[in-house]
Amino acid sequence: MFYSKSQMINRGGMYVLGGWAITNIVSGAIGWKYSTGDTRYFHQMNLFWNTVNLTIAGFGLAHTFSTEFHSMTGPEMLDKHLGSERLFLINAGLDLLYIGGGYYMKYRSTVKEKNKDLLSGYGKSIMMQGGFLLVFDMVMYLIQRHHRIQFLESANLDLSMWPGALSLVHNF
Description:
mainly alpha, 2 strands
């Protein structure tokens, strides 16, 4: 039941990510065709960036449907769940790098004449995409963390972790 709900939460997240990606691909294609200047490059990058997001959402969704958790032990399920939590936190760190990289590109567009529109448009897009992904990853992490804590409290379990080890203790 615990890991099934964990997978259901991840599945919902992949639908959100996929919906964001499809919306950005469609609006990016239209904007790329009908815009000029840095706005054209903004839409172009949104389209490019979200083909990757859509691929990630597709693989993530497929994973939530293909995981055979019925044969897994409780500690294995908890370990997989914790792996998802860690992945969302790692991704949030990467998202900060995306935002910073986009900001740098936008800044470079103000001091460099060559490729000014491209740098500005791509920079704005990468900042926006990184901002969305930061919110997405942090919300997913917090939802999964809450789910884990709620489960452990309801089962009167304490979780201890240290490098290379995971310990569950049942409290009577």
